[in-house]
Amino acid sequence: MDVAQCERDMDIAQVLHMNVGDGDYSYSNNSLLQRKVISMTKPIIDDALTNLYSALNFPKTLIMADLGCSSGPNTLLVASELVKSVYKIRQKFGNDESPEIQIYLNDLPQNDFNAIFLSVSKFRKNLTNQMVSNNSSSPCYISGVPGSFYTRLFLRKSLHFVYSSYSLMWLSQVPEMIDINKGNIYMSTTSPPSVIKAYCEQFQKDFSTFLKFRAEEMVSEGRMVLTILGRQSDDPCSKECCYIWDLLASSLKDMVAEGLIEEEKLDSFNIPQYTPSPKEVRNEVEKEGSFMIDRLEVSEVNCDASTGNNLNLSEEEDVQGYNMGKCMRAVAEPLVLSHFGESTIDEVFKRYAENIKSSMSREKTKHINVTVSVIRKG
């Protein structure tokens, strides 16, 4: 069996999306963690927009894009925060003229764009009410743009501001591997060196491609703020970025041992993700050459997807583990389902949730965020 070919045939554009709808395991109902990250990085966004607005001499139109927008409450939250940030910047500079704002929402075609569009009228009404209460009005237009951000998406020199949060760690494809990543579904301490190398090279290729196309689409002095799930360590197999997939691999290996999943199926499954270090992000931005780094920061967020109020320690650990399990199912289920099939999916994620709960009861774990704010060179 040609494992590498099997992996290459996996159409990432078709299966790499969050769980759609509003069910118990939907991304819409399990994205509080991502919401926290958006809130944490807001000061960096505000700073970038302030500098942009000043550099462009108070433009009458602002064209923005949210790349990897997904669906659910976070999508239009980002749009709302961008518009309100522009309003506050206008106040700061004493500019009474409201710019027209176009916001493009981008994700892969299988994203739940219908859910977004159904929420736009409510978004506009809420935004209008807030702006009217502040004696202001900034026309805001929302458009969906399906497609991979590893391709050209927009007109040349049309974008003023680009934003992306928790999307660029997803690769354009599963890395092409010359060795089997046996017993693993991601980089691990037991992965062959060639597997680690393949993942690193795929990230470098993809991120460089992303920067190249955004450089073509952005105006001179345009700003871009990217938050990527990453790591602090220089070791790509460090626990801080690999443990969550190790727990899923452990669940799958147990099912292989029990004859519920074929070993060959496990050995041909790898997650198309790479969590870079700040050094790697800096290196790729500088190597591509179209952008100047304004800020490069690392932050941490607790891995539990909710906070347990009025719970004792044991209850809180159970709730946190359960919710983190649902969060990961919302993210990973389409990938797992496409490879292993529907008959095993509930059992896989039942065991995965138990492993997460057990791990979180032993030690507090955090996600590492790498945020880079860059300026398009003239």
UniProtKB/TrEMBL annotation:
Taxonomic lineage of this organism?
Eukaryota, Viridiplantae, Streptophyta, Embryophyta, Tracheophyta
| InterPro entries with a match to the protein in the record | MeTrfase_7, MeTrfase_capping, SAM-dependent_MTases_sf
Q: Does the keyword Mitochondrion apply?
A: no
- What keywords does the record list, in alphabetical order? Magnesium, Metal-binding, Methyltransferase, Transferase
Q: A single GO molecular function, which one?
A: metal ion binding
The UniProt entry's sequence similarity note says: Belongs to the methyltransferase superfamily. Type-7 methyltransferase family.
Q: Which Gene3D superfamilies match?
A: Methyltransferase, alpha-helical capping domain, Vaccinia Virus protein VP39
Q: Name one GO biological process term.
A: methylation
Which domain of life, per UniProt?
Eukaryota
Listed name of the protein: Putative salicylate carboxymethyltransferase
